Amino acid sequence: MWAAFFVRHKIVILCKPTIIMKLYYTVLICAAVLSSCKQKETKADSKADRPLIGAWHLINSKSITKGDTVTTTPSADEEMVKIFNGTNFAFFTHDKMHGKTAKPVYSSGSGTYTLAGNDYAEHLAYCDAREWENRDFKFTVQFKGDTLVQSGVEKIDSLKIDRIIIETYVKLK
Prior knowledge:
Number of domains: 2
Number of strands: 11
Largest sheet: 8 strands, antiparallel, barrel
CATH architecture of the largest domain: Beta Barrel
Helix content: 10-25%
CATH superfamily of the largest domain: Uncharacterised protein PF14869 family, DUF4488
């Protein structure tokens, strides 16, 4: 027995029904195999290997200048968040009174970063304190559960800034 395919009243292919069924089952099996394939997560994509990515809330910040240690932020009426994706970071500080205070606070900046083990480096490309823009800073980071401790030197000769900072963040859920 032969079967014919018709396309707009024209005969396209003539073949036996068993050939059509074999072709149908072959296509069906190929579709099932392809749809069941799942791309394996690579080591670079693993969340465990990229602990920095996400949003972090600053809970403590210290600045050490010539041996004097000062807790710098956050004050009781301010908060700061730092956000990381695979290549960029951004930070935002604001007062909790939404600017309705005698001294409103808003500060922000962003740029690129690299992380190799515990060695963390930032290139601050944008900042509301414009004299800080296009500067590079090197830090060390430590992860303890949902806590990040970033420490290192902030040095800008033209601004007479030379201090060690230690910032402690908790990862936002």
